[in-house]
Design goal:
Belongs to the SAICAR synthetase family. This is Phosphoribosylaminoimidazole-succinocarboxamide synthase. Residues 7-231 form the SAICAR synthetase/ADE2 N-terminal domain. It is a single chain. By secondary structure, this protein is an alpha+beta fold. It contains 6 helices and 13 strands. It folds into 2 domains: 3-82, 2-Layer Sandwich (Phosphorylase Kinase, domain 1); 85-219, D-amino Acid Aminotransferase, Chain A, domain 1 (2-Layer Sandwich). It has helices at 46-63, 99-105, 134-139, 145-168, 212-215, 221-232; strands at 3-9, 13-18, 23-28, 31-34, 39-42, 70-73, 78-82, 85-96, 112-122, 131-132, 171-183, 186-189, 198-202. Strands 8, 9, 10, 11, 12 and 13 form a 6-stranded antiparallel β-sheet that branches. The longest helix has 24 residues, at 145-168. It binds guanosine-5'-monophosphate. Guanosine-5'-monophosphate (5GP) binds at residues 90, 92, 98-101, 129, 175-177, 196-199, 211.
């Protein structure tokens, strides 16, 4: 598969076209951004770690019956993916209270959420990804009711699979964000799953092992991502 032109440059990934319109190349860069791109830093090895981490997780999800866009790893920082028609709605599941939920509702960080919450956000940096509900998504034509139901079903299925996976590796899956798209009319999981888009805490100490280390200036960001990868058995080059 030949890489052609740059289609889109996001905050942490670049999307390239290929000689086959059904496939794209995702390039994971070392750029790390927070606060809708207000703060951007280069963190050495992050692109490689996230690319390999994402590949590992997507393979687990595919095996569990979740359709994903991932085809195969191409290099340390690149993966071949299906060209999805992306739905501009982010699906967030929370098992423990953190982040914007704590700010919005004034609850204590770390409070267990039973059952887990499911939220929708509009993917729009200028508007700072506002929270929306199903009726907004349907009324504005971002997704149909059937598509939203399938996105919710798959997002909760991902929770079952990944909560168990992280638990066995001594971590709590606090929350995560997923994005979906359409491929031949089917809802398929797109974007990435990495410590950039989820919260992971050590099960015993509740130490943060995710992008909150960057957002909160705690340092040791890539070291934490590599620790998560090591605990899961994700193969990383030295
Ligand atoms: P919160 O709403 O608490 O800011 O985020 C909830 C979860 O979704 C966190 O795991 C966070 O990393 C992820 N998330 C939500 N929006 C985004 C986003 O625009 N980019 C990334 N990388 N993660 C997001």
């Amino acid at each position: 598969m030949q890489k052609q032109s740059e289609l889109y440059r996001g905050k942490a990934k670049t999307v390239h076209t290929t000689d086959d319109p059904n496939f794209l190349i995702l390039e994971f860069r070392d750029d790390t951004s927070a606060f809708d791109g207000e703060r951007i830093e280069q963190l050495a090895r992050k692109g490689m770690v996230n690319n390999r981490f994402n590949h590992f997780i997507m393979e687990k999800l595919t095996a569990a019956g979740v359709p994903t866009q991932l085809e195969r790893l191409l290099s340390d920082t690149e993966s071949l993916v299906k060209n999805l028609d992306m739905i501009p709605v982010e699906c967030v599941v929370r098992n423990l209270a953190a982040g914007s939920l704590v700010r919005r509702l004034g609850v204590e960080e770390g409070m267990a959420l039973t059952p887990p919450t499911f939220e929708l956000f509009l993917k729009n940096d200028e508007l700072h990804d506002p929270m929306i509900n199903e009726s907004h998504a349907i009324a504005f034509g971002w997704a149909t009711a059937e598509q939203l139901a399938e996105m919710k079903r798959l997002t909760l299925k991902v929770n079952e699979v990944l909560q168990a996976l992280f638990d066995e590796a001594g971590m709590l899956l606090v929350d995560y964000k997923l994005e979906f798209g359409l491929f031949n009319g089917e809802i398929v999981l797109g974007d990435e799953f990495s410590p950039d888009g989820c919260r992971l805490w050590d099960k015993e100490t509740r130490e943060k092992l995710d992008k909150d280390r960057f957002r909160q200036g705690l340092g040791g960001v890539v070291e934490a991502y590599e620790e998560v990868a090591k605990r899961l058995g994700v193969p990383l080059p030295a």
